Amino acid sequence: MNPRETALNALMACRKDGGWPNAVLKDYIRRDRLDSRDAGLATRLCYGVLQNRNKLDFYLDQLLTGKPKDLHPVLRDILHLGLYQLYELDKIPDSAAVNESVSLAKKYCKNPRAASLANGVLRNAARSRDQIRQPVSYADRYSHPDELITLLKANLPKGKLEPMLIADNTAPQTVAQVNTLRISGETLAKQLEREGVAVQRHSWMPDCLVLSGTGNLEQLPSFQAGLFYIQDPASKLSVLCAQLPREEIRVLDCCAAPGGKSFAAAIAMEGKGRIVACDVHAHKVELIQKGARRLGLDGITALEQDASRRREDWVGAMDAVIADVPCSGLGIIRKKPDIRYKDLSAGEDLPRLQLAILRTQADYVKPGGVLMYSTCTLLKRENEQVVEAFLEERLDFALEPLPLPEVFPKNETGMLTLIPGEYDTDGFFICRLRRKL
Q: What are the tens digits of pLDDT across the range 289-309?
C-alpha cells in the first residue's frame, strides 16, 4: 500500500470516528503491511497534516476560488496532504506530491472533477511557492485556535508560549525505557541496532533510548521479549521523584493505564514490593496486565477501580500512591494533535474530579508515606490550584522538594511544570506530597 494512501485513510478515520492518530495509524500501518520507511512517511504525513491544518487552510484560501471549508472533506484531506508535502517537507519531489494526490482524488472522490481540481491547485501551489503569503498570527502559523492560545498564554511564563507552539508541531519521538531487570541500556541499544532501529541515548533520563525507524514496533524481537516499554521521560520522572525504596512496600497507581508508571515503579524497586495498578475501564486493565506479563513484572496486580470511589480495605495501607489523574491533555498535543481543536469548555469541570480523586487517594497513604500528583496538562486550575485546595483541607500533608536530575534547577516548591520546548518532553505537572507522621 502507498504510504500516502495509508495516511489518508488514517486522517479520514480520525475525522469521522474521532480516533487518536497514534492508535489509528498503528492499525492502518499493520493492515497495509508497510515497512519501516513507508510507515515513517505515513506517520509524518498524518501527524503533519493534523498539526498544520489551519496553516494549510491559510494556503488553500489563496489557491482556491472558494473557501477550504466548502470542499468535500475527503478532497480537503487530499489537498492538505499534497500541500504539506510541497511546503513542509524538503525531500519529496513536487511531481510525486502532485501526482500521488491526484491519484488519491481519482480513487477516493466520487466527483469526477475532484482529480482535476487537485491537479490544478497543487501545480499552482508548486509554481507559487515563493509568492504565497505566509501566516502571521499564531493561530494560522502554528494551527492552534485563538481561544487555546489565549488560555495557554495566561498559564505559561513569559516567553514560553511560542516555543511550546513550535514543539507541539514537531514529530513526536518514540522513547523507550529500558527494562533493567532483564537487560542493560547499552546491550539493548546494540540489539535494537541489529534489528534495524536507529538509537540515541536520552540526554538526561538514565536507561532511556530515543528510537527511530522502528516500523511496527510491536514486531521487534526486543519488544516481544519485554526488554523495553514506551514512555515519555516526563511520565517516568513523575515516578522517579517518588524515590521508591528497593524493598517490600505497597504502591498504588490509581489511574494506571496504559501502565507505564506502574512499570517504571516496579523497575525502580528492582522487582521488590507490590504494585496495585488500577483503571476504571476493564479493557485498559487488560492492557496493563498484558504489558506487565510481557515485561516480566510479577509484582504488579491490575484491577478495575474508579479512582474517585473509596475502598475501605486500602485506607492507610499504601506506602506510596501515584495519582496521574484525568486531565485536559494540553501537554501532549504533539502526540495527540486533535486535542488542540477540542471544545475547551468540556474540561472546565475537571478540577472537581481531580480534587475528588486526590482526596480519596490521600486516605490510602500511610503516615510517613508519599503521594505523587501529576497531570499531562499545563493549566494551573488543574495543577497548582488543585494541590492548593487539597492542602487547605488536609493539614496532615505537606509539599516536599522534588529530587530532579542535574539538568533541572534545584526544586524547593515540591511542584514542577514541564513545558514542551524546554526539556524535550511532553508537557507535564509533577507534585510530591508527604503524609505527616
A: 999 999 999 999 999 999 999
CATH topology of domain 233-435: Rossmann fold (3.40.50)
Residue 226: C-alpha distances to residues 4, 134, 208, 218 (Å) = 32, 47, 15, 10
Catalytic residue from among 46, 241, 254, 376: 376
The pTM assigned to this predicted structure is 0.93
Q: CA dihedral in degrees (338, 38, 26, 331; nearest 10)? A: -40
Class of domain 174-230: alpha beta
Q: Give the pLDDT confidence score for residue 37 in this predicted structure.
A: 86
Taking 50 as the pLDDT cut, the residues of the chain under it are: none
Q: What is the pLDDT of residue 227?
A: 98
| Residue recorded with cell 476504571 | 280
**Using CA atoms in the order 66, 67, 68, 70, what is the torsion angle rounded to 10 degrees?**
-90
Q: How far is CA 10 from CA 29, 88, 307, 345, 428, in A?
A: 9, 19, 33, 27, 27
Please choose, from the candidates 223, 225, 253, 226, the residue with its C-alpha nearest in 3D space to the C-alpha of residue 238. Answer: 253
Cell of residue 6, nine digits: 495509508
User: Rounded to an integer, what distance in angstroms lies between the CA atom of residue 46 and that of residue 44?
Assistant: 6
Domain 3-132, CATH homologous superfamily name and number = NusB-like (1.10.940.10)
The backbone region for 35, taken as left when phi is positive above 0, alpha when psi lies in -120 to 50, beta otherwise, is beta
Does residue 46 carry a catalytic annotation? no
Q: For the chain, which residues make up each domain, given as ranges?
A: 3-132, 174-230, 233-435
Cβ–Cβ under 8 Å, residues 304 and 287? no
Read off the pLDDT of residues 192-250 as tens digits, 9 standing for 90 and up: 999 999 999 999 999 999 999 887 788 899 999 999 999 999 999 999 999 999 999 99
CA distances from 100 to 76, 91, 201, 244, 285 (A): 15, 15, 37, 53, 42
Q: How far apart are CA 56 and CA 38, in angstroms?
A: 23
